[in-house]
Amino acid sequence: MTDVIRVLVADDHDLVREGLKAALRGHEEFSVIGEARDGEEAVREAERLAPDIVVMDIRMPGLSGIEACRELRARRPEIGVLMLTSYADDKAVMASLVAGASGFLLKDVQTAGLLDAIRTVGHGGKVLDETSSAAVIEQVRNGRILTEEDRIASQLTERELSILELITDGLTNREIGERLYLSEKTVKHHVSDILGKLGLGRRVEAAAFAMRRAANRIGD
What we know:
By secondary structure, the chain is an alpha/beta fold. It folds into two domains: about 5-145, Rossmann fold (3-Layer(aba) Sandwich), CATH 3.40.50.2300; about 150-215, Orthogonal Bundle (Arc Repressor Mutant, subunit A), CATH 1.10.10.10. It has eleven helices and six strands. The protein has a six-stranded parallel beta sheet with strand order 2-1-3-4-5-6, sandwiched between helices.
């Protein structure tokens, strides 16, 4: 990476793109080398221009910013992505980070904060808007980002997580009850609750969910 941070701006609103370019103009450490109006163009231009960072809107027509981030990071993992949005939404934060984004900011951020974030991500760091929830911030500080499966599984109690693990091991309700000193009827009730919380219909689907969650964990 050169001393100058090369930036690609991606947003479907002309005024936002012009505002971002204006914020960077006059700062010699930044160079806006291109722009995009949707997710497909963002991926295409990023591959062509090889910027240090793409500053990208989350909500764009066609390929969303999150989808574009995922595709871009798969193709060019060395390119940092800073996601911008108008609304604070922990689900969007998590989805962005799981997609590979290095940062997440609200569009009402002060210019100094925006420049600091671009500088940080442009040099390989990570940033997160201060309005994001404590739970999200804690995950980032610990160097581990929740996957979508983690988010869904967070609805389960510790007991239910233990039972889910034993379901994955192929144990029957009776065997689970013996292992956890519970009646078979109680285990059956827990299994029903687990399936309901996960939005699944069969225990084999719950086992598949648990294995998929384990395979997709990031940073463990």
